[in-house]
Amino acid sequence: MAVVATGFFDGVHLGHRHVIESLVSTARERGEESVVITFWPHPRAVLQKGARDLRLLSSQESKISMLKELGVDRVEVLPFNPAFAALTAEQYLRDIVIGQFGGTAMVLGYDNRIGSDDLSCNALIPLANSLGIQIIKLDAVGLVSSTQIRLSLAEGNVERANAMLGYHYFLNGVVVGGKQLGRTIGFPTANMSLYNPLKMVPMHGVYASEVVVGFRRLRGMTNIGNVIETHIFDFDADIYSLDIKVYFLRRIRDEKNFNSIEELKVQLAQDKQVIESMSCD
Length: 281
Description:
10 helices; alpha/beta; single chain; elongated; six-stranded antiparallel beta barrel; five-stranded parallel sheet
């Protein structure tokens, strides 16, 4: 027997966390398992609704990890394909929620819609009740949506995005070789190749950042342009081919073109000074 929440949960933001906290607490009260049913790939990629412009806030792996950190007993990933997309709300509840996972109750956010017939939470209640499933409907938590977070990142407003996520937005990948110009002027950079090419990259510019390499978390500044490159403060180890995770704290300026190497060096020194004067919050 299980209490179920269902959705894509991209980014596992504060709105999602409200649902998951209710899921976990309700399941514990009922002595049942808490189960998140999610999907892959993103429905837009299958239904061809703006698939070319689709960018994700979290990889499948990080999403599952965050959900489990919130106390979920099981995360089930179902393949989203045309046959799955064609399921009506009744078929989804009967065959998937009850048939596959033994669902007795569902926790739904205020804007959850289910099935090819796109039933709203209110429309689902009598249907679910007729099938023996209790619907637990939650109120909205501020203006939090994956779409709003993506828009904030596209504008470079990582502080607003972070406030809606409940954590600092991050990119992760592997350190690859670059032109090594920064090293010649005292600002070596780690160039990142993203593990997930669909991951949403914030607007071009220079950001205050924190960087995780190995077991160390260090301060730095990250430039997003044609490449994603990070100067890690007070750090000069060889980290080529190692994993790197960059957390974005604040955008401090636009990209600039410089007339000389010396002009670039002066600007980088100013950027570093600005970031070092900031709090780490």
